[in-house]
Design brief:
The complex is a heterodimer. By secondary structure, chain A is an alpha+beta fold. Helices cover 48% and strands 17% of the residues of chain A. Classes of the chains: A alpha+beta, B alpha/beta.
């Protein structure tokens, strides 16, 4: 019997067009994503059909496919009830078990078939002839089998079982669809958990799709592994799969046990008996119908609209699934609020705009899904209840019915946002934060409502025009996919992507700033479009039972009059008018450059001008500039002079320079010349000097530039010059001499696409020619710097240098800064309404310019400045300036802070609002301040030549310096905590390398290496050499190379100093740490102890060690190990009622073999043993370095 | 006065629902009789502005029903064949809501109208109950209550008695007849008694065509003396059907009573019967009798 039910189900579904439609759609989707780069994990050097990419695309596709799975499964569950054939079925001798599981299995097989066809399509897609052959790896079957078997099938089973049970319990498709939303919510929540190092395993376990568990398993994969490997089925991934299959079995079992075939949709039958009590009555005589006048005026229509809206609102808001979704949404929002802004496990103050951000990301997809699902449900509600004919025959305009439904849906969206606001206010209270900023909440919620509200109109329109709930849903899915797709094809203008509005990032300093204006224009634009949709929806509103298109068309034309027509006309006019205004702003006042064109220009720049790369340039010796900042107008005027000198031995005939296309040139003052190249688009200029600049001769380059904002742009608005918190550096707007290779395309496939040969990102370390420049710039090294900067009367303007004088003139404030010694040609300007906190350290002025209200951590920053100056002056060299300034800037900046000479702009997001009142908190601002102060040495004293390894000399050394200050202040445990995050980031990011992973000493400006790996390596080096010898080597190095003239130093010279202090036999150590990519795989295999008669304990531990060398792609080769590694035995002790580790034994031991057994005697009962327990060595699996000790079995 | 002129409708799947239907329907109850699938509902829905015909015209009191839909809906009361409800709303609230949709916006008048209709349909005692708990008969009565909102001049009730028990049905028909005195009421049904008991005029429709139209009494009178009856064995029925114009067969106490249409006695053993509407119906459907008048 089971078999025939099962086969019947399969045959039935295979006869339905739905299966073919959905499978076709799914396959097209998969095919398209398989043939485009930049999708999924295909990134940089990972090929388009790499196993990881295949797994990623298929699982992601499978999640979208879930919407089809529901249709299959729910159809199997409720078909007999919909068709009223259930009684036919259940009067037959079919067991409940056979019936349900047979149907279920059939529908699951159908779903799986869809996925298998999708997988085949993906496989085929990798053979398409137009793909870049460099990006296609060898074909492998295993990833498809793995994805289908391990990732998709268990998920399908579990979710399918849940949908099946939900559908057979509620007989409601809507509830079933909302079930999938529930799974998405759990997925989102688990993703949030998994992104936090402390509880990543829980997050990975909880994710019903297994995506997080997979991500965990492949997180540290190298490029090579991404291209060839299949994850092991074990660990969290295995448990996750088992967990959810178990959940699926449980739910399916419950579904079978509680199945009640007699219960129909609305439970009419049960009540049947009790309705008979009405007394019969012979005739209806005697009661007359009171006269009631019908009134048909506009007021009536309004009343009808309000009443109908009330009915719709009540029916939505009272429905259980809606309340369930609301609860789910809040769960996600509060979860997001809890983790927002967290850095190194340390929270930030729950500022209102962060709460709004949590609401936004929590609701991002949820609201659109709800708008889609409910629009289908609501628009067809009268039909499904069987009251539509009465409604349709009533003298009520279409607009009333449609308007009420859409209004109710928009109100539902608003309710979500309001509840989100209420929940986050509650969260703020819970966190003891009471500055609610209700006005901001109102503003933020209003902006967040725009997108879902627009979606309501679109979803409604699709439902009405398609006349079918499922087609309406499918249209929405197609719309959403195409929305992203057309962006991939270079259509990035908001003007032709429905409901596309520019983001409105919020800054504490600058509020919504200038982002609000374009947002409002685009919102208005799309609102007008929705008016057209609304008008058409009214016209096509399904009234009566005609389905033929011809009749609907005739009817629609007849209806196209009155308000509907006015709405369409007004909407269309408004749409065109606002669209024209937007176009005028984005494309005429400003230049609209889609990203593929921007890339094209980058390529063109290289093709045209790379020939001048090594040409002789005059060197800038001094910079003098008058800069006027007009924050209100977002305008800057720059009048400057470069004093340049020919430092070479040949005459210079040509002057090459770049100008940003954001500046308008008012005037350039140069020696007499002929313009040879004036390329405004690429910003490159070549002037032939009438009189060559002879060696040793100087010349002046004067420039008068304006940076102004005209109207608004489509994307990438200027965030440097703003109403409060302006910040820009010289490279943004000042002329830059010579060809700059920083503008080149890096990604290899992008380079191939534009016909560019592979180039080295950085010159080789032994390229002495390249060492003539610092890595900061090719046009200068040390310059004299003097500037006068002015701003509006209520702001303070800051630039590097000592403040010479300050005055007010013409309602503006002027500040004259002058550097007392030459600095690198690298400076910035800032202006804002600041509060200033001052302090001093040994005659050095410390100034913190912060946003009023951001006092929280200013004292910590000052402390960090002082302690850093203490440590660095004591251990490295004296401080070269007379001030250390920290200036808060808006969070628009992509970086946390940037160190200019004596002046450090510091993002409001990076530590100003970190919450340090918890003793356990990691002092984020302290560490970051210390890092930036360290740059006054590492970059501004010692600066590497423009060759490989240069950023190690600035960033890695700054990391090391700050770690030392941190360790002095907070002890080794917090330092290790920070290092744990650094190790995680290094291991995670190396698989996303675009070109090649370099050893640390040859780093090519790769942040994951020079910051993250650098921290871990330098800390290990300190551990091996000792702090004092290492600092001695560093001080020696500084004394040799600080403020040097070309050629500039390299990491080789640094390592030479290190080798000098290193003990005998540590040659290999420096090679492992700096000159190669070396990894370890260390673990404790076995650990037991026996208690000895004298009360001591004999611990026996067996360790396994492996040493690996990786190449630039991450291909590892094992090499013999002969290294000193930490061995630890830990006990437990109670301190203030808390159990803590107590170190019983800690020593470095030489490991010269893959397997070593140690026997150690300790005085107290051991609890855990460790083999490199603090992860001083780079180890991809750092969890198995510690192990619980068990009491030995073979004693006694 | 409702006038239907050569109304035709063919569905996309080729089914001919209406074919040149011409009808004149005066004030009072008008019965539309026909078997399932005859096109009754199509006709009713077309009159109720829910469907467009392929050709033809419908006029009611100077209104073109097919184009002036909004105007027609203002004076229309419609009870569709399948009538669902919002299960979680009380009868009173729902009726009040329908009243608003019908344009009865003055609160006092609306309240009176709602209560009056609930009393009239004998639902006043249960007005607070959720509609989901109503029986089929109560639901039908609720349906008629909503159809009567706003003093409609044209009332269309599609198969209102289907599924009702005899008592419920009786009560329902009484209600209708009371209203039907002053306005046009069109009642479609496949139950002959409904028409006989209530309607002043009627039409029989089959396969989309009007087979007969007139006053029930005069039609019955027209057939008087032309219907014959005989009780026969079951086994003989087939041969009678072959040789005579058998209009209906009915089992009675193990034997079969056959009714035969014939101007003269069809043969031995047949007796003339008092013609009733059912005989008219079957004769018409079998094509043995067509309107002469």
């Amino acid at each position: 019997m089971w078999k025939s039910i099962f086969l019947f189900e399969i045959k039935y579904q295979l006869r339905q067009p739905l299966f073919y439609l959905v499978t076709l759609f799914f396959s097209i989707l998969v095919f398209m994503s398989g043939t485009r780069d930049g999708v999924g994990s295909a990134f940089g050097r990972v090929s388009l059909n790499a196993p990881l990419v295949t797994m990623d695309l298929l699982t992601r596709g499978s999640i979208i496919g879930l919407f089809a799975v529901i249709a299959f499964v729910a159809s199997a569950a409720v078909r007999d009830f919909d068709r009223r054939t259930s009684e036919l079925f259940f009067s037959k001798p079919v067991s409940r078990f056979d019936y349900l599981t047979g149907r279920f299995a059939g529908s699951i097989v159908i779903s799986l078939l869809m996925y298998v066809i999708g997988a085949l399509t993906l496989a085929i897609s990798s053979f398409m002839p137009w793909l870049d052959p460099e990006l296609v790896g060898p074909f492998m079957v295993a990833p498809y089998v793995f994805t289908l078997g391990v990732l998709i099938l268990p998920t399908l089973f579990c979710l399918g079982a849940t949908f099946f049970a939900l559908a057979s319990w509620t007989r409601s498709i809507l509830v079933t669809y909302l079930g999938v939303v529930g799974f998405f919510a759990v997925n989102l929540f688990s993703r949030m958990m998994a992104s936090d190092l402390e509880n990543e395993a829980v997050g990975q376990m909880l994710d019903p799709f297994g995506v997080e568990a997979l991500r965990g398993a492949v997180r540290y994969w190298t490029i090579a592994e991404r291209n060839t490997a299949i994850p092991e089925i074990g660990g969290v991934l295995l448990y996750n799969r088992l967990l959810w299959v178990g959940v699926g079995l449980l739910v399916l079992g419950l579904g079978v046990v509680t199945f009640d075939p007699s219960r129909s949709r609305s439970r009419r039958k049960k009540r049947r008996e009790e309705t008979k009590q009405v007394a019969p009555r012979g005739a209806a005589g005697g009661v007359s119908r009171p006269a009631a006048s019908q009134v048909f005026t506009r007021a009536t229509v309004l009343t009808q609209f309000l009443r109908q809206t009330r009915l719709e609102v009540v029916s939505v808001f009272k429905s259980v699934p809606f309340i369930g979704m609301l609860a789910f949404g809040l769960f996600i929002v509060v979860g997001g609020a809890n983790s927002i802004g967290r850095e190194v496990g340390t929270d930030v103050y729950p500022l209102t705009h962060l709460m709004l951000q949590a609401i936004q990301s929590g609701y991002a997809i949820l609201l659109v899904i709800i708008a889609t699902l409910y629009s289908g449900d609501m628009i067809w509600k009268e039909r499904s209840l069987g009251v539509s004919e009465v409604y349709d025959a009533a003298p009520t305009p279409n607009a009333v019915y449609l308007g009420a439904k859409l209004t109710a849906l928009v109100l539902a969206m608003a309710a979500f946002l309001l509840c989100g606001v209420a929940a986050t206010i509650g969260f703020q209270v819970w966190r003891g934060y009471y500055d609610f900023e209700l006005g901001l909440y109102a503003k933020g919620a209003a902006t967040l409502l725009v997108y879902p509200a627009l979606m309501v109109f679109l979803a409604g329109f699709f439902q009405i025009v398609s006349r079918s709930k499922f087609v309406g849903y499918a249209l929405m899915i197609v719309f959403m996919l195409s929305w992203d797709l057309i962006e991939e094809f270079g259509f990035e203008h908001h003007l032709y992507r429905f409901a596309s509005v520019p983001p409105t990032p919020y800054s504490e300093m600058n509020g919504y700033g200038h982002f609000l204006t374009p947002f409002l224009w685009y919102s208005l634009y799309w609102a007008f479009f929705c008016a057209v949709l609304l008008g058409l929806s009214i016209v096509f509103w399904n009234r009566g039972i005609d389905t033929a298109w011809k009749l609907r068309w005739t009817e629609a034309r007849a209806r196209f009059r009155g308000p509907a027509r006015a709405l369409v006309a007004a909407g269309a006019m408004g749409f065109v008018a606002t669209g024209s205004w937007i176009f005028y702003n984005t494309n005429l006042l400003n230049e609209y450059v889609p990203s593929d064109e921007a890339q094209e220009r980058q390529a063109a720049y290289e093709k045209e001008y790379r020939q001048y790369k090594d040409g002789a340039l005059p060197r800038i010796q001094a910079v003098q500039a008058d800069v006027d900042i007009f924050p209100g107008e977002r305008r800057v005027e720059i009048r400057g002079i470069y004093r340049m000198e020919n430092e070479g031995s040949e005459p210079i005939r040509h002057l090459h320079f770049n100008l940003s296309n954001q500046v308008r040139v008012n005037r350039l003052d140069l020696p007499p010349h002929q313009a040879e190249v004036e390329d405004d688009e690429l910003g490159y200029y070549v002037y032939r000097l009438d009189q060559p600049l002879e060696p040793g001769e100087a010349a002046e380059f004067g420039f008068d530039l304006t940076v102004e904002q005209r109207g608004f742009v489509n994307h990438g608005p200027n965030t440097s010059i703003v109403a409060n918190g302006t910040f820009f550096d010289n490279r943004a707007y000042f002329p830059v001499l010579g060809y700059t290779d920083r503008k080149q395309l890096v990604d290899r496939s992008a380079r191939r696409k534009h016909g560019l040969e592979p180039v080295h990102r950085f010159a080789k370390i032994d390229d002495d020619f390249a060492r003539r420049n610092t890595y900061v710039g090719v046009d200068a090294d040390w310059v004299d710097f003097e500037t006068t900067v002015s701003t509006s009367a209520d702001q303070i303007a800051i630039a590097p240098g000592s403040l010479q004088s300050e005055w007010t003139e013409g309602g503006r404030r002027y500040f004259h800064y002058k550097m007392d010694r030459p600095i690198l040609h690298f400076f910035g300007y800032m202006s804002g309404r600041y509060e200033v906190v001052r302090d001093t350290w040994n005659g050095v002025a410390i100034e913190i310019y912060h946003h009023p209200g951001h006092e929280y951590n200013v004292a910590r920053m000052i402390d960090a400045v002082k302690k850093s100056l203490d440590y660095f002056t004591a251990n490295f060299s004296p401080y070269q300036h007379r001030q250390v300034r920290i200036i808060e800037i808006p969070r628009y900046a992509a970086f946390g802070a940037r160190a200019f000479p004596n002046t450090i702009p510091f993002s409001e997001a990076a530590g100003f609002i970190a919450r340090l009142d918890d003793e356990d908190a990691f002092d984020v601002p302290f560490r970051r301040t210390s890092h930036e102060v360290a740059h006054q040495w590492w970059a501004h004293q010692v600066v590497g030549g423009n060759v490989q390894g240069a950023t190690m000399l600035s960033e890695t050394m700054a990391q090391y310096s700050s770690l030392m200050v941190l360790e002095k202040e907070y002890g080794p445990e917090k330092t290790r905590r920070f290092l744990k995050y650094e190790l995680d980031r290094y291991l995670g990011d190396r698989g996303r390398e675009l070109v090649e992973e370099m050893p640390l000493s040859l780093v090519e400006n790769q942040p994951y290496i020079h910051y993250s790996k650098g921290s871990v390596i330098m800390y290990a080096l300190k551990d091996y050499l000792g702090e004092e010898p290492l600092n001695r080597a560093i001080a020696e190095f500084v004394s040799k190379v600080a403020f040097q003239e070309p050629p500039f130093t390299t990491t080789r010279e640094f390592l030479d100093e290190v080798r000098r202090v290193a003990p005998e036999g540590s040659e290999r150590l420096i090679e492992d740490l700096f000159e190669t990519v070396t990894l370890f795989d260390n673990k404790v295999a076995e650990a037991t102890y026996t208690e000895r008669p004298d009360g001591t304990f004999l611990v026996r531990l067996e360790v396994e060690a492996k040493k690996l060398r990786a190449d630039g792609e991450g291909i590892e080769t094992e090499i013999p190990i002969d290294d000193w590694v930490d061995i630890a035995v830990l006990g437990e002790q109670e301190i203030d009622g808390e159990t803590d580790d107590k170190v019983l034994f800690f020593e470095k031991r030489r490991i010269a073999d893959g397997q070593v057994v140690f026997e150690l005697v300790v005085d107290e009962r051991p609890v855990r043993v460790g083999f490199d327990p603090y992860n001083r060595l780079i180890d991809r699996n750092s969890d198995d370095n510690l192990r619980e000790v068990s009491r030995s079995q073979d004693t006694k | 006065m409702l006038r239907i002129e050569s109304l035709s409708k063919t569905y996309g799947n080729g089914v001919q629902a209406l074919l040149n239907v011409d009808l004149e329907i005066p004030k009072g109850m008008f019965g539309l009789l026909g078997p399932n699938g005859a096109g009754k509902s199509t006709l009713m829905r077309t009159i109720a502005t829910l469907q467009g015909p392929d050709s033809g015209a419908i006029r009611f009191r100077g209104l073109d029903v097919l184009t002036q839909k909004e105007e027609v809906r203002k004076i229309l009361g419609y009870l569709p064949q399948e009538f669902g409800v919002y299960p979680r709303i009380s009868a009173e609230d729902m009726l009040d809501h329908f009243a608003v949709l019908k344009g009865i916006v003055r609160p006092k008048e609306r309240r009176d109208a709602v209560h009056g209709l609930l009393q009239m349909t004998n639902l006043h005692a249960v007005r607070k109950r959720k509609l989901g708990t109503f029986s089929g008969g109560m639901r039908r009565r609720f349906g008629i209550a909503q159809a009567l909102l706003g003093d409609p001049q044209l009332i269309i009730v599609d198969e209102p008695t289907a599924g009702l028990d005899p008592e419920e049905r009786q009560r329902f028909l009484n209600l209708l007849s009371e209203i039907g005195e002053s306005v046009v009421v069109i009642l479609s049904t496949h139950i002959v008694e409904d028409v006989r008991e209530l309607c002043s005029r009627m039409a029989i429709i089959s396969k989309g065509e009007v087979m007969l139209c007139g006053e029930p009494a005069s039609i019955v009178a027209d057939l008087d003396g032309r219907i014959w009856r005989r009780t026969v064995d079951k086994s003989e029925v087939a041969s009678y059907q072959e040789s005579m114009a058998v209009i209906s067969t009915r089992l009675f106490a193990g034997r079969t009573i056959v009714h035969v249409f014939s101007d003269d006695s069809p043969g031995e053993g047949f007796e003339s019967v008092d013609t009733d509407l059912e005989d008219v119906y079957f004769s018409t459907l079998k094509g043995m009798y067509a309107q002469t008048a």
